[in-house]
Design a protein that fits this description.
The chain has 97 residues and is α+β, with helices and mostly antiparallel strands. The protein is built from 5 helices and 2 strands; from the N terminus they run αβαβααα. The longest helix is centred in the middle third of the chain and has 12 residues. The chain is globular.
Amino acid sequence: MGPGLPSQGNMHEVAGGAHVVYVDNDHMVAVHARALLASKHDDSVRVMQADLRDPAMVCGDPEVRRLIDFSLPVCVLFVSVPHGIADGDDPAGIVRA
């Protein structure tokens, strides 16, 4: 969640065999990330432009459901974003969801 612009050593590169979905609400981040991943032809990695304040939408997305089996343990990385979520948006509830 909130990966920002991709660089070297991204999660899909270091997590050997893991299915990875990058989620960011910034259009340019999503476009850039998709362009970088397009050359890799890796069916286990996707980029999703979405608002992490809507975890039901993120987790219910068909591509996310295809890649992530929520009946198994899942790791979610919130990269430099929880502190930017207003208290009224219930950051703890978002993380819990």
